[in-house]
Design brief:
The complex is a heterotrimer of chains A (336), B (156) and C (500). Helix content of chain A is 45%, strand content 19%. With 336 residues, chain A is an alpha/beta fold. In chain A, strands 2-1-3-10-4-11 form a six-stranded mixed sheet, sandwiched between helices. A five-stranded mixed sheet of chain A has the order 7-6-8-5-9, sandwiched between helices. Chain A is globular, with a radius of gyration of 23 Å. The relative contact order of chain B is 0.10. The chains are: A alpha/beta (336), B mainly alpha (156), C mainly alpha (500).
Chain lengths: 336, 156, 500
């Protein structure tokens, strides 16, 4: 009996495995299942799941947004989206992976300003031109915050103090070369103040602010909003063109006189040789998902601004943004 | 102390020199007067060099009385060692194959080789059955049941 | 007041859907935790899309089920196969696997489950009663304090060096060297990448751990003749720890659970330290002793500590909205998706939700206890499986698992080379556990040290400014001194006297 047990086990495993193997093979071999739709388009896309590479960890802002859009967009796409986190080296790991895939639209990347920061920092030897845009989905303002009981009520006050006490004010960000770091440096240069920028891991700057290890934090607005609502942290400024919905009293950097945008964008990109027709199909899917009621609500909970932009416009936008980022990083001395 | 320790210690010393050479070539940027990216590596190189020197000294001091036993290195005979190296080689080939032709195609033949040639399974039926069973079983549990992506291969 | 909330929470939780999700979550968690190569973090990520469809409480209950179930399940492969399912279970391997070799697998597994659940429930009590107070202390842990804590964590190297401190230290330093490969954690400068862009993201801890523990065993078993099978095929006794044994270990379990809760509540400190400190406690107080003298305490200590971490990590998450580790970061995401903003307001505005979570954690611990205890009889059957089936399966699992960590094939090569390293270290008598300890703590120790100095503008006094870091640093000195004295200051191998 004992000798037969493993064999039985193997057979019981083999039979369903072969069955599953066959059926999944059928699916792959029969692309015309929803034939009507396929006839309308010039090419047959998609015939299998589309994989989205997320450059940062699960549960983070980028990841949640992508997973939500994937969930909404799937119906429209007619095939599942598979979300895979490929993290590391400020996004370079994921970008490198997607770049090396076949440009057929089945491998796309959830991109952001990290395409520029990772390149200019020297983490990868190719830049945004390796990819082409599909759609921009959201913009995220960056916030500058101090603890609720700090003496500074405005950004001007904070930096006036910083100018009088060079090297004393410590501002936390999410890591050297991260977008929040660039923002922090841009603002301190704007005021001409000598402050210490302290790089923290993801999200830990907030905890350091609450623990009074630093005087101010530069973080994505979404990452500090619950502290703001709880009254433990005070926002001094946000980036972007207009004030944010969740904190209408907080002035933008523009209102403080800073001329520049400094907003994080999140978008989808594909390898640059991906055919136009495929891009168009994916663009349509994401347009549908981004403009859906469901996503609007989701974005509000998350504290990000829904901001759709089509493929063509996005390419121009990224080119300009990359040039801006390069200039900024040159200024800080981070550009390789 | 084993006799082999003195050679290990010498190798470790050489390694720390080599690693130190690369450490010297690291960028020396600093921030706010705090130690830069080279500081911690230097501490480690120093620690490794010091510790392997200590190991060398202790093995030289205590090694004399045991040095006549050549079989002291882990009790592994020459024959076995050869076999170990072979298995490492097969595993490496397996990994290269998975990367290139994908999990499902690579796993079955390699397992069959391991079962028959390495582990000495005599029966073809059991060998083929086990190799196929493990391949399918893991595919089922991971891909189908849990939805974990498996390596699919570069070539197709 | 609290009672009202508890009742309301109870109502939220005790419907059939939530109970079913808890059982599902725990089962998935145990599966992911117990299979070498899969971790509970992976399980949580895979469950995440599912939670989009659910209400907030069922969603959180499901994810917490995977988290707690997975943390407990990590001990299974650590004890039975000597391959930890998660980094937190690495310390459990030391005594747990030796117990299995002696035929005490069931007892070790039973001890692991019991101490895990005890710690889980204890951490729940702490969470309910004093969460805000603990959070206020935990938040004071800046880089300098975390550095001191991690240094203290390193002192456990003495205990896991299997009688040869010098070689243990060398192993530790090698582990730290490996962790410096890749982008430097503070400034993002590439180090030792040798021109390979793949090395930029560094060596993945999990991939390295799988390789280091599993490959040497695979090699040994592949090449073993039938006479010298490495895994015991003696009849596995199905005896659970007796009540007197449990009573004996109870103080240790509680102490280790508290250590786990404390460390878990400090954001960014890294939970696995807790397990090693727990092992150290067991070893020092009760005399657990690795290969020479494995004891149930050596399983109970680390398991109580790492399950204490699960509850501890929820403290800053729920009270401040700050995730303490990758798993709770995903939980935070799930909460935010459902419009819940963890933080001081959560308790005020969603009191019944919070207490619902508490009740859910209680039920999850119960479910884990039941499923695991039932599972033990099943798990130990693995030992009866012939090596023809078992070890080829483990090899395939290692490859699949290393790949699944980041969906990056490079990690499979990392796993392989870590395996070669592990093999060589063992062959020349170097203990491998210090390497894992170093891999786990390496990035944190450098991070903490450099960040603290950035904050102090290079002033080294920052490390002795706060009482917390003074305490940890002097504890470290104390441990080292004690260890040195008890080993008689001699470097002879095996000269370390096991202490009563």
């Amino acid at each position: 009996m004992k000798r037969w047990l493993p064999l039985l086990l193997i057979i019981s495993l083999l039979v369903p495995a072969l069955l599953v193997g066959c059926t999944s093979g059928d699916q792959e071999a029969a692309p015309g299942t929803n034939g009507e739709e396929a006839d309308e388009k010039k090419i047959d896309f998609p015939t299998k799941p589309v994989e989205i590479t997320v450059l940062f960890g699960a549960g983070g802002g980028q990841d949640l947004i992508v997973r939500k859009l994937a969930e909404i967009g799937e119906e429209k796409l007619g095939q599942p989206f598979v979300v895979v986190n490929r993290t590391g080296a400020g996004g370079a790991v994921g970008y490198t992976y997607v770049k090396d895939q076949k440009p057929d639209g089945y491998n796309i990347v959830a991109s952001s300003n990290s395409i520029s920061t990772a390149y200019h920092k020297g983490n990868m030897d190719f830049d945004y031109r390796t990819f082409r845009g599909i759609a921009m989905v959201v913009k995220e303002p960056v916030s500058i915050a101090v603890k609720a009981d700090a003496p500074w009520k405005t950004l001007d006050e904070l930096f006036a103090y910083a100018k009088e006490h060079p090297g004393e004010i410590k501002i936390g960000n999410s890591g050297v070369g991260s977008f929040t770091h660039l923002t922090g440096v841009a603002v301190s240069k704007f005021y001409g103040a000598d402050v210490v920028h302290v790089p923290f891991g993801k999200g830990l700057a907030v905890s350091a602010l609450l623990g009074e290890k630093i005087d101010a934090s530069v973080q994505l607005a979404a990452e500090v909003m619950n502290q703001v609502e709880a009254g433990t942290v005070r926002l001094l400024a946000v980036t972007g063109d207009k004030r944010i919905e969740a904190a209408p009293d907080v002035p933008t950097l523009k209102e403080y006189g800073y001329d520049g945008n400094l907003t994080l964008y999140r978008s989808f990109h594909a390898p640059k040789d991906t055919p136009d027709e495929v891009i168009a199909i994916l663009e349509e899917v994401f347009k549908y998902a981004v403009e859906s009621e469901e996503f609007a609500e989701f974005a509000k909970e998350l504290g990000v601004q829904v901001s759709f932009m089509g493929a063509e416009e996005l390419d121009e936008f990224v080119a300009k943004d990359d040039a801006d980022t390069a200039r900024l990083m040159e200024l800080i001395g981070l550009k390789k | 102390m084993k006799r082999s320790d003195r050679w290990v210690a010498v190798l470790l010393l050489a390694f720390s020199v080599w690693w130190g050479y690369h450490t010297a070539n690291l960028p020396s940027a600093t921030m706010a007067n705090a130690p830069g990216p080279r500081f911690f590596p230097w501490v480690l190189v120093g620690a490794l060099a010091l510790l392997s020197l200590l190991l060398l000294i202790t093995s030289l001091k205590t090694g004399a009385d045991e040095s006549r036993r050549p079989e002291a290195n882990g009790g592994i005979g020459r024959q076995k060692l050869k076999k170990h190296v072979a298995v490492f080689f097969i595993i490496f080939i397996y990994i290269v194959l998975v990367e290139n032709i994908g999990f499902r195609l690579a796993t079955f033949p390699i397992l069959l080789i391991i079962l028959r040639l390495v582990m000495g399974q005599k029966s073809w039926v059991v060998g083929i059955g086990t190799a196929a069973g493990i391949t399918m079983g893991i595919y089922l549990v991971f891909r189908v049941l849990l939805g974990v992506p498996l390596p699919s291969g570069n070539l197709w | 007041m609290v009672l009202d909330y508890l009742l309301a929470g109870m109502n939220l939780v005790t419907d059939v859907q939530v109970l079913a999700l808890i059982v599902l979550g725990v089962t998935v968690g145990i599966m992911f935790g117990s299979m070498p190569g899969l971790t509970y973090s992976m399980g949580i990520i895979l469950m995440l899309p599912l939670t989009f469809q659910l209400e907030s409480l069922p969603a959180v209950a499901l994810l917490l089920g995977v988290y707690i179930g997975g943390m407990t399940g990590g001990s299974v492969s650590a004890i039975l196969l000597g391959i930890p399912g998660t980094p937190s279970a690495a310390a459990t391997v030391l005594d747990g696997f030796q117990l299995t070799k002696r035929g005490d697998a069931a007892k070790a597994l039973g001890t692991a489950v019991f101490s895990s659940i005890l710690a889980g429930l204890l951490s729940l009590v702490v969470l309910v009663l004093v969460a805000p107070q603990i959070a206020r202390i935990a938040i004071k842990f800046g880089p300098a304090e975390i550095f001191a804590l991690v240094v203290f964590g390193f002192s456990t190297i003495c205990g896991v060096s299997a009688g040869n401190l010098l070689k243990g230290l060398i192993s530790g330093v090698i582990g730290l060297l490996v962790m410096t490969i890749g982008l430097d954690p503070v400034m993002g400068v590439p180090r030792y990448t040798f021109g390979m862009s793949r090395l930029m993201s560094g060596v993945d801890l999990l991939a390295a751990m799988i390789g280091m523990f599993a490959i040497p065993q695979i090699i040994a078993n592949f090449t073993a003749s039938d006479k010298e099978v490495y895994v015991v095929d003696q009849k596995v006794s199905a005896s659970f720890p007796s009540w007197s044994e449990i009573r004996r270990m109870l103080p240790l379990m509680i102490r280790c659970a508290l250590i786990g809760i404390g460390i878990g509540s400090i954001p960014g400190s890294g939970g696995p330290i807790a397990a090693f400190l727990g092992y150290d406690q067991a070893k020092r107080k009760q005399g657990a002793g690795g290969a020479d003298k494995p004891s149930l305490e050596g399983v109970a200590g680390p398991e109580a500590a790492n399950n204490g971490v699960t509850g501890g990590a929820l403290i800053p998450l729920l009270t401040l909205g700050i995730p303490g580790d990758p798993a709770t970061a995903i939980l935070l995401g799930a909460l935010v998706i459902h419009g819940l903003r963890p933080g001081p307001l959560l308790f005020k505005e969603y009191g019944d939700f919070v207490y619902g979570v508490f009740v859910a954690i209680f039920l999850i611990n119960l479910a884990t206890l039941l499923i695991q205890f039932f599972g033990i009889r099943l798990f130990v059957k693995i030992l009866g499986v012939q090596r023809y089936y078992l070890y080829p399966t483990i090899l395939v699992l290692c490859v699949v698992g290393a790949f699944a960590v980041n969906n990056n094939f490079f990690d499979v090569y990392v796993m392989f080379f870590a395996g070669v390293m592990g093999y060589l270290l063992q062959k020349y008598g170097f203990p491998t556990t210090p390497v894992i300890l170093a891999l786990v703590l390496g990035p944190t120790i450098e991070d903490g040290f450099r960040r603290a100095l950035i904050l102090s503008s290079g002033d080294l006094l920052v490390f002795v400014e706060s009482p917390v870091s003074i305490i940890f640093l002097s504890l470290t000195v104390l441990v080292l001194a004690k260890f040195y004295l008890s080993s008689g200051g001699s470097r002879q191998p095996g000269a370390r006297q096991p202490k009563a």
